[in-house]
Amino acid sequence: MKTFDQLIKFKTWEIDLYRTKIMPFPGKYPTRWRVSFYAGIKCVHTHVCKPNSLQQQIALNLAKKLGAIDLMEFDRGGVIRRCYRATPRKTFEVQWTHPTLTYAYYPWSPTGEFFSPWWGPIYHKRMRFEGRDFFVYSPYQTMLDAGNVERLREYRRWLRGSAVLK
Question: Are 73 and 32 in contact (CB under 8 A)?
Fold first, then answer.
């Protein structure tokens, strides 16, 4: 079993503007969150976790305190979304996002606010494209409805035109 440091390809929490390929973590959760809380200049809480509604509640409870919170979502290649805000607050607008990589993982969810895809139920959908299997986050439980089939076709057209899997 590989350790977390062996799975990731970056050593610092830097934003790479020139990245074009997704590098998902193995399993149903292709990305991870890093939640850090600062009281003044001292970091008093940091943890790396799989994104889910429980971790969202932990971050929202930290946001009730006076200080600053740093939220990052990343895959094995680096950061794809970041939010750094002073607290106390209830919403977390994303300050920086990589639009191509974010759309690759959240094709049907709004991503203007950091936790907006996780407000409702979220499902892990396994996608197969050109012989590669990967997971994306979807707000839809079944993808075979008439409207969702068209969404899948649109996403497939987007994958063919982008270079995220090549």
Answer: yes
